Structures are given as structure tokens and as C-alpha cells.
Amino acid sequence: MAEEKKSPLNEIIQPFIDLVHAPRALWGINLAYVIEGMVYFGMLGYLAIHFSDFVFQGVEHADEHSHNMVMILTAGITIAMFFLGAVADKWGVRFALIAAFLFMLVGRAAMSGAPNVLRLEPARPGVFVGDKVNLHVTELDTLDGLKAVTGATVVANDNGANGIVGSLVTDLTAGNGTAPDASFESRPVRLGKAKLVKGEDQEWEVQYGSAPVTARLLIHSADDLGLYPGATVSLNSAYVTKRTEADEVEFLIRSHWLEDVAAVNTFPMDLAAGEGTAPDTSLESWRVRLSEGTLVQGEGKEWQVRYGRAPVTAQLRIDYRGKLDLCPGATISLNRAYVVKQEEDEDAFAIRTRWPQDVATVDTSGCQQAPDPTALADKLITDLSSGDGIAVDASLRSKHLQLGRGTVVRGQGHDWQVQYGSTPVTARLLIRSTRESGLCEGARISLHRARAVRHGGAGDDFVIRARWPDDIAAVDTFGCEESPYARMTTEREDLQRSDARWPVAEQDETPRAVSIAELRDLDDGPVNVTLSDAYVTYVRNGGYFLQDSEDRPGIFAIVSPLWSPLHLATILGILFVVFGYGMYQPAAYAGVRLFTTPKTAAMGFAMLYALMNLGGWLPTFAFLVRDEDFLGFGIPGTWWAYTGFTLVALFATITILTRRTVAAAIATAKAQTEAIKRAEEEKTGPRKVEKEAEPELKAATSSSGGRPPVHLHVLALAAIAAVFFRIAQPADEGYVGIGAFLGRYLYLENTWVWSVVGGLLGGWVVLMGISVVRRWVARHPLADTKFFFFIFCLIPVQTLFTYNWLILPQYINRAFEGWIGDYFEIFANANPILIFIAVPIIAAVTQKAKVYNMMIYGTFVMGAPAFLLTVGPRPWALITYILIMTIGEAMWQPRFLQYAAEIAPEGRTGQYMGVAQLPWFLTKVLVPWLYSGWMMDRYCPAEGTQNTEFMWLVFACIAMTSTILLLLAKRWVGKDFKTKAD
């Protein structure tokens, strides 16, 4: 009798029906998994910001330190899975899940409660500018060319004993200007008004004084400063330090942005002023303005423009995706543009601007066939401060706005009242920032761009909203009634000055008294001396400067937030989370294997993966808890909300996954699996190859007689080499060619690097000499050569996962215009919710496909669409890339996890699931370490010429390597894939 033909629709629907009737234990895992996905990705998204802006605020290299903390969490979890994946195998899934949630609950409570419940703050100096102190010094060191006190205790403190600004601080910009030199080393200085000539990020060449003088300025800040060539800055305080590179000594001015800045003006230079200025090499990458230029000839987006009294003729390039109805004879004014090299001629320069964000006015009345000028009016920038001033209302909601100059009347934090215009008009200004803006009553502020938004979501109350520092053109706090930034530090300073918080230490002995000059001449290392009657002349979160006279160098006393009680408490919380998550994910996948049958296994793994992505998408709405426009709980408060959800997940696991429920689910799954096998044998006969893969795997791990295979030794050597190149500070000995590499790294300035490398290498040798360890390594899943190759060949395609949070948000924000670039979160966070939708459907459609074939097809479908982005920042390319990449991910990622679970020998599923996370761990470490930041700086900078097409070509080629390796190894690895959802 012919077999009844099944409906394709039923083939898709039936697995979902099977899952609906899946045991209660499986849904207990799924419920906790979606909650945990939300909590993990939600807290991870805030971790770097929390460290940079709070724990390490104001210290040098704050971002580097914060990224290291994130790496401890993300990389630590994968390492923990490596060792703790077997907990579920040994003590059961229920025990592992409950233990994991307990660890994570304690860790997240510590991270959330350190700033509020425990009242911990970053370690601060406890002294203030003008104080006269006596110091017991116990440790000296030289850091970044600066002599520093690294161990000291305040013995006595005469608060506010001297007015430092008038007596000890030198204004470098006075008169002709004074260059920083050896006589100013470790001395506090001021900058009245300095012009940024060239540079990027936090290091700039500045000019000041009537001469003018050129000097190097280093600005340390946790945030993007929004600076560029042509801007001017004024600093209330800074200090001079020495830097030595390649035997060359340079004296630098150093500043800590929020603490020191008095005024900043980023209004671009007007090329049309006076005779007119032609764009040339001196203005490359400068932001500029064009008050009124006349289009001479051209078409589309390429024009010759004439401006100035001379007049000057220059090339104008307009970035826009649509059609521009411009014509010869039209006049155009640009609020903002920048100077770039011509692609066809590197010696020629052009003015480049974006339409309509940077265009102020367009007048086409001078054209012979003029287009309708009203069609352009709504797209151009409106200056609220022009004339009598324009009140903010609903008519401005969709327009691009700017504010020429406004005066801050009153307010605090991020919420201010400003006045502008000749009448004047009073409006409410909200500043979006992760930290205080440093404004005060009486300050002057100008905005490059802003938006009119309805405050509170209803009514007619419209406010001006701008982002700090991206939208700020100029800030001048000299007009403030109180000193800049005093408002946001007053409460903190009062707390720090209290004797209870900063007790004066008692001396146990009478050490030798020295002056600052004598202290600077002492050798680095432990000392036992007293410094008396020294004035505090400069303070930042990382420490303070001590000075005894204006014409003598001072010394820096370090009080670093690194390893402060706040830092240690947060690190302790992270470690608890690492241990918990190291048990949790392997246990969850081990539970899916135990609670499903061959018919529902593929869908079970796919649903768990989909629910993780659903949880990863939910933190999109966390701003409702964090942002001050809503609940305003801040990052620690939002973390407390996530900690509460962890408690909910723990309670759900305990109540749903009871011992009886788990035992019943396992027994039911085994009985159904046996029934499926018997039914298959009745149709096709006994399956003789059912257990072939497992004996072969056991043979692979035991045939070496307990000796680790060669590829594990190679892996260990590669890891040690990576550590070497990560910590090595190469010497610059003037080598060329191959010598430039070997010489720089073989003759290191710090011999301790070789000690570390030698210790790691010796440690590996010693471990391999211990029989118990050697046998454990030889029996480890990575000892299986095919399994080892299989998981490592997936690293290239998994780089696309890393780009989702490293590359994609910045790429969309920088390369795309309009609402796509402004609201980049919509597209950057689209992948998780699409995965949630796509994974179950694709798993149902492909449930009978062979796993290895799905790995090949899936990695190809995931990697290939990256080539679409090589056409440039086009909306259709971005949307298509995200959609197709998501389909590819849904095709192979859950099947890979299924393969890792099913290839594991009986009783070792959790261990294999932990090891299967290794590619994801390596991509999280290697991508940011090796190339992602460098590629973004070079090919997708925030300002200047972009070449995102080549960047994505490189990324696409890397991703496609996985598909090529899988194809090449199909006969070797693919033949052993028994996994198939029949």
C-alpha cells in the first residue's frame, strides 16, 4: 500500500505542535533563557559606559581600562564554560541551572549595589586646589615621563590656604605666547584661547599667543570630544609633562576635559570671509563654512562654486542619495562642510557637504530655469536665534535646527532654560549625554544642530533637544556666576572633605624631610620621607599636583581609581557572573538534549537560540528605566532592574523544574526516542551505523595513549605568542625590513615580558608532565582533530556576530544620512528580533537536512550578503544585508549547537557544549584586538573621507573563508556527521 503523501504545510507546522506538547521541563528552560538573554545583553551594553564614565572617570586611558573589564566578562564566560560545562553532566541539569542563577544573582547585586547600597565611589584625591599639605611618601615611580608619588599618606591638610590661580598658575597664551619646556615640567598652566591645527581624538597640535606658539595638547576624557581642526579651546587649568619617544624629548600640555575646560568653539571657519580662502592641504579634514557661494557650472552633485571678494573658485561635492534640482547661477550657504582631497587628483582639494543636514540656504532665483525654491525650504536648517528669535513649537518638529548663541538662564544637569534672539525668546533645552555637561547659569552655548521634540510625549510643550558633544558648536562658561563644573561637584566635595571620609593619617615614625626638588631626584621605588608645606595646584580624579613655588617643577601624587573598593566590588560581581554563566548555558543546552526526541531536537535547539535573541532585543527599551526623561534611574538603577529579573528566572527554574518534573521529562523523552527507533527499524531494518560516530570519537581521544595530540600543543604556543605581542612594548632601534620586526620585538625595553612568556611556556611544559593533567587534556573534546577543525573553521563567519555590536552601530551612524543614521539603533538591533522570528521557521523547513550541508549553506548565506555593502552606504543594501545575514545565521547556528550536543559521548554533553563556545570567544577577543578599530578609523572615520566599500569587502572575504574550509573538509569531516532530524 502506497504511503500517504504528507502536506508540505503540515511538515512545517508539525514540529511546532510537537513543541507545544513538549514537557513542562523544556518550557521551564525556555522561560528562564529568554529572561537571562535580556539581562545578560542589557547589562553588557552598559558595562563599558559604567566603567569609563564612573569607575574610571577622568583618568588616563579610561576607555582602555573599561574595555579590559568587558573582556574579562565576555572572555571569562567562555573560559568558564570550558571548565564548568561538565557541572550539568555530573550533578544534573537542575542543580547546574539553580547554582548558575545563584552565582549570577550575587554577582549582579554586587555590580548594581556598589555605587548605591555600599556607597562606593572612585578613589579621589581628597584634596583641592589651594590646599597646603604635609605628605608621608612611601613609593615613587616614573610614569609616562612624569615623576610621580605612587604611595603616600596625607599627614596634615590646611584647606584653602592659598589662591593658586593668581600666584602659581602661568597663562601660556599671554602676550606672544609661551612654549612649554623643561622649566614648566609638572607645573600648572592655563590656556586663554588655543586653536586646534591638526590632530584627532585626544591629541592635538595647538597654536596660541600673538606670535603664535605651536605646542602639543593631550586631552584625557571618557567621551568623544567632538573636536576637529579649526576649533578653539580655553582651559582654566592644565599641566605640563614630558614625553620621551625614540630618544626625543617633547613637553606637552595635558588637560582633563570636563574638569579643566572653560570654553570651546567648534564653529567652522568661513571660507567666504574677506577675500575668500581656497581649500588646500593646510585645511585638509578641517570643518569649514560657506556663507554665500555661487554655483558656476556643474550638474547633479558636482559643482564649481565661487565665493569671497577675490573671488575664489573651488570644487563643491554634495553627498545625497536623491536628485538635486540645482542649476548654474544659484547661490548656496553651508553651515558645515569639510575639506577633502580630490579622488582623481591628490594635489587638488574639494569642499564636501551633506544634503540637507549641512545646507543653510539655497536661492535658485538667479537661474535661467529656476526650480521651485519652496520645495527646498523645509529641508534646510532653521536658525532659532536669527532676528527676534523663533519660539519652539509643533511647526519646527520635522526641521533641522541650530542655535547661533544662547544664554543659559537656569537649570541643572541636562535640563536648562536658554534665552536667544534680540527679543529674546526663552526655551527649554534638554541635553542628551551619559555624563554631566558642565553647564552653569550664565554660560553661553551654541548648537550646530538640534531638534524640536514634544516633551513627555503629549501636549504642546516642545523643547530643544541636542546631544553632547556631537551637536554643540560652542560653550563659554566664563560668564558663569560660579566656577565651571562646580555645580556638579559641590555635593561630592563636601562629602570628600569630611574627616570621617578622609581621615588624616597618624605617622608611626619620623622620616627624613625633603623638598619637592629633592623628592624628584630620588630613585624610583620604596622611600620613607616627608614632604612639608606643599601646595595643591592641580587636581583630577587620578591624583593631584604639588608645587612649592611658581618657577620650580612640581610632582604628581597618584590616587588611582584602579583597584579602588568600587573597582574591586564591581570586578567581584563580574567574576560571580562569569562562574554562573559558565555553568548556565551548557546546562541549558544539555537540558534541551535530555528533554527532546529525535523529532523535536532540531526545533528545541532552534527555539532556545531564538529565545536568546528575543531576550537580546528586549534591552532596546531599557532607556525607559535609565534615561532621566523617563524613570531616570541611571545605569546602576537599571542594573537593579535586571538583577530583579535574575531573581524571577531563579524562582521560575526552582518552581517549574522540580526534581519530579525533570525525571518525568527525561523518562518520557527516552521512551519516545525508543519508540521512534523501533518504528524506523520496522520500516527500514536495524540501523547499523547509528553509533559509528561515537566509537570513532572515543578512539580519537584514547588512541594516543593519554598523550595530547600535536594540534593542542600548537594551540598553546599560538596563545602564548598572542600574549607576547599583546603585552610587548617594542623598542625603536631604527631597524628596517625584517629587522624592523625582529629587532623591535627581540630587543624589548621591558625584560619582564620575556619572563611572562617564559613562565607561560614553562607552565605548559610542567602541566604536560603531570599525568593527571595530561590525560585530562588528551581526553578533552578538543583532542578530537575533526571536532577541533570544525569549530575553529567557523571563526571567520562568526566575526559577523562581533560586527553587530562593534562595527554596525558606528557604521550606520557615520555613513548614513537622515533618520537611518540618526536612529541607528533600529537597524543595529534588528538582528536579534529577526532571528527570533526566522529560526523556528527555518528549523521547521530544514529539519530533515543533513547538519553538515546546513553548515555549508548557512555560512555561505550569512557571509555572502556582506558583499552587498561594498556598493556603499545604500539603505536597500543595508536592509538586504541584515535580512539575508539573519537567514544564514538561522540556518547554521542552531544546527551547530545541535551537532555539538549530539556528537558528545554519553554523560559529556555539557562539556562539549562549553567547548563549542570557543569560536565565539575568540572572535570577541581577536576582532577588536587585531583590526576592527583600525579599519573603522581608516575607512569609516567620523569626519573626513570614507571608504566603507573596501572595508566591507575585507569583512566579506574574511567571513566567506568558513564556507571554503567546510567545502574543502567535507570528505574528511562531513562523512562522520550522523546528526539528522528525521
Strand content: 15-25%
Report helical residue fraction.
40-55%
Spans of at least 5 consecutive residues whose pLDDT stays below 50 are: 483-508, 688-704, 731-744
Shape: globular
Quaternary organisation of the protein chains: single chain
Q: What is the gyration radius calculated from CA atoms?
A: 32 Å
Tally of alpha and pi helices: 33
Structural class: alpha+beta
* Number of separate strands: 27
Taking the alpha carbons of the first and last residues, their distance comes to 22 Å
What do the pLDDT scores average to? 76
Biggest β-sheet description: 14 strands, mixed
Structure description:
By secondary structure, this protein is α+β, with helices and mostly antiparallel strands. The strands form three sheets. Strands 3, 4, 5, 6, 7, 8, 9, 17, 18, 19, 20, 21, 22 and 23 form a 14-stranded mixed β-sheet that branches. A hairpin with a 4-residue loop joins strand 12 and strand 13. Helix 2 packs antiparallel against helix 14, helix 12 runs antiparallel to helix 26 and helix 17 (710-727) runs antiparallel to helix 19 (752-768). The longest helix is centred in the first third of the chain and has 32 residues, at 24-55. The radius of gyration is 32 Å and the shape is globular.
